[in-house]
Design goal:
Chains A, B: This is TetR family transcriptional regulator. Chains A, B: Keywords: DNA-binding, Repressor, Transcription, Transcription regulation. Chains A, B: InterPro entries: Homeodomain-like_sf, HTH-type_TetR-like_transc_reg, HTH_TetR, Repressor_TetR_C, Tet_transcr_reg_TetR, Tet_transcr_reg_TetR-rel_C_sf. Chains A, B: It comes from Kribbella pittospori. The structure is a homodimer. By secondary structure, the first copy, chain A, is mainly alpha-helical. The first copy, chain A, has 3 domains: about 50 residues, Arc Repressor Mutant, subunit A; about 100 residues, Orthogonal Bundle (Tetracycline Repressor, domain 2); about 35 residues, no CATH class. In chain A, about 65% of the residues lie in helices and about 0% in strands. In chain A, helix 4 packs antiparallel against helix 10. The termini of chain A are far apart. In chain A, about 40% of the residues are buried. Chains A and B meet through helix 5, helix 6, helix 7, helix 9 and helix 10 of A and helix 5, helix 6, helix 7, helix 9 and helix 10 of B. The structure holds a DNA duplex.
Chain lengths: ~210, ~210
Amino acid sequence: MAVRREPLNRERVLRAAITLADKEGLDALTMRRLGQEVGVEAMSLYNHVKNKDDILDGIVDLVLTDIDVPPAGTDWKKAMRRRSISAHEVLVAHPWAAMQIMSRYSIGLGMTRYLDATLGRLREGGFTIEGALDAWHTLDSHLYGFTLQQLNLPFAADEASRVSADVLPGLSAEEFPHVVEVIGHVMRSGRVEDFEYGLDLILDGLEAGLNGS
Amino acid sequence: MAVRREPLNRERVLRAAITLADKEGLDALTMRRLGQEVGVEAMSLYNHVKNKDDILDGIVDLVLTDIDVPPAGTDWKKAMRRRSISAHEVLVAHPWAAMQIMSRYSIGLGMTRYLDATLGRLREGGFTIEGALDAWHTLDSHLYGFTLQQLNLPFAADEASRVSADVLPGLSAEEFPHVVEVIGHVMRSGRVEDFEYGLDLILDGLEAGLNGS
DNA sequence: TCTGTACGCTTACGGTGTAAGTGCAACGGT
DNA sequence: ACCGTTGCACTTACACCGTAAGCGTACAGA
């Protein structure tokens, strides 16, 4: 007689996990809490996912799906620029994702597709295999490194001035003149680091290498 | 009558924590295990450190001490190159460190010194405050991003071929031609990504920006 | 000699992921 | 119409985590 509820499935578990992690942080993503979120006891989740690592792998791969890599035929530089900016947006929208991608081993379907498209645009653009590897790796280093710094470092991002105010009093200007100078500047200007600065620097460098030497 | 042992102190606790994390990974660094390592019960550690976070902050800051940033008077480009390579070596020697730096909030004495020296060489080299911020941030994005990829991504580093062999069978060459191509190349050539490729690309770009526009 | 403090110890609590076992409801084959 | 299988939920229990709280003892300074 009771209303038969829609049965759970892997997809719904992963979606709920993403929502929960986005809203309350990755620490809040526990099996019991996630179960509660989808209206089920913790252990019931194991009917749909292998274990917690499977969930983490799953949500990372699902999120990668959102990254936009332009299709074959797009100019490589334009494609890489678009891809990097899109990836950066996605990683900022899911602040737990960058760290998970870097700290875990798996390559799922989403990751493979994303990678294949990336390498494809580079190869079509005239890069050798080695060149494409270097380009990909350099672009991604900047992507992940920048995003992680942006999300975690005290004096980056919006809260810069708030945190800086906390930190400044403890810093002697004689001992650390340059740190004090920079923090002062950040506080006054409200400046936020610019992802595209490093991105364009790298893209131009890659282009020069491709045409030159 | 029993031999009076050297009393523990914060320094020895942190050193032991670093050794343990280096040898068995950060997961093995639990309070009980660390206590065991220094010959003491877990709770006794709390006489020397505030809590586990204090330990993590402490070992990160201690490790940063090992990074070599050339003194004032050194050419900025040479100094940044040296600093980046040194930092990369240190982060590879302590594979848990990069992730911890990126995922935690504190800036201790070691971090501040390291940062001040970095900004100092850039400012002395002619960078504006904003320019120095951009340069620092871009160099560090590459440093951390590259290192994390190197330490964690399946097809990077030495184990590339081993892991690739595991992964390849599941990849259809029609669906993911470029991934298959690249993995094949990595397996044949045993190629390992090169930190200095991206580093020099960035340094040259920074130099061009400094002299040009 | 007395006493305060530093530093070790033990016990206990609430949290984690998950192994193992139970029970119910729907479905397919006879 | 029955009945075995299967899918999916539930409950219980375990080992391990960080750490709060409290106890005991040995040394240093008065």
